[in-house]
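Hey, I was hoping to borrow your eyes for a little while. I've dropped the whole record in just underneath, so have a look:

——
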Amino acid sequence: MSSVAELQPTNRFFEEEVVGKGNFAALTRVYTRDARIMPPGAPTMKGQEQIQAFWKSAAAALDVKAVKLETVEVEFVGEAAIEVGAATISTNAGGSVEVKYVVVWKKEEGVWKWDIDIWNPVQ
């Protein structure tokens, strides 16, 4: 039986290594090989290359300083997990953006990773 605790290392890695250190190449540790992201107001992007390019560009455009992910609930369904969460994106200018998200997780090579990622700003 899987637990929420098994998902947290990937979320912390995204916060600390990817966003915190600007290491967008490390997204291969966060997303599955065939992952899809569905950013607000943008087309769906698929695969490591498109996802890395998106996050690198978005972080630069928003001047992102940090991201904090908060799991609200998780449901495990067969070989997948569905996470509903909230995130705070902090900028170097001192502002922040609140978002809500849903991530469908899958295990890849024994590690839980994000397979489908969709988010929207909280209005």
